[in-house]
Design brief:
The chain has about 180 residues and is mostly beta strands. It is about 15% helix and about 55% strand. The chain has a single domain (about 40-175), classed as lipopolysaccharide transport protein A fold (Sandwich), CATH 2.60.450. Strand 2 (about 55-65) and strand 3 form a beta hairpin.
């Protein structure tokens, strides 16, 4: 009986260790978690966009998030100034939020979006606006209001040059002052 007891005392630890090792050999599937948040964050940003050593635009933003794919988000708004070839300020754009789509090379402003043509004293307002720096154009399919010294135009959708020097309202309404030759 003594030998069966010693075998039993010897076997219990061996069986316990065997169970421990057998439970450790099972591989658990690991799920890869992909981080989709911003890689970089900057505050109180001032950026100058130049072409041929001339400033074309100045960007101001309180906060920028930059993502893996090069996209940028401006959650606290954006302010842009545009300049002509001589360096003269031609127009400004502001929006409550903005997003830059790198793969499409386009910007989207949302919220209270305003574009002002300084020389014409003209202003465009919309809730959403896209800017295409490569073609220097802006557009939207949303409701727009254009005001100047004498007129207020309304419409749904617009295609325009970034400085509002030339534009087409897609579905216009409103009143226009017509000057007669005297």
């Amino acid at each position: 009986m003594k030998s069966s007891r010693s075998i039993l005392f010897f076997m219990i630890p061996v069986i316990a260790v065997g169970f421990l090792f057998s439970s450790c050999t099972k591989k658990e599937a690991t799920k890869v978690i992909v981080y989709e948040g911003p890689l970089r964050e900057a505050e109180d940003v001032l950026m100058h966009y130049t072409e041929n050593d001339r400033v074309k635009a100045i960007l101001k933003a309180k906060k920028i998030f930059e993502f893996q794919n090069g996209d940028q988000e401006f959650p606290n708004g954006i302010y842009l100034e545009f300049f002509d070839k001589t360096g003269k300020l031609t127009s400004v754009l502001r929006a409550n939020t903005a997003f830059y789509f790198k793969s499409e090379s386009k910007w989207r402003g949302r919220g209270k979006v305003e574009v002002k043509n300084i020389e014409k004293q003209q202003q465009l307002n919309s809730e959403e606006l896209f800017w295409f720096p490569g073609t220097r154009k802006i557009s939207t399919d949303k409701f727009v209001t254009i005001t100047d010294k004498h007129d207020i135009l309304y419409g749904t959708g617009i295609d325009a040059l970034e400085d509002m020097s030339n534009y087409t309202i897609k579905n216009p309404t409103g009143s226009i002052e017509v000057k007669e030759n005297q």
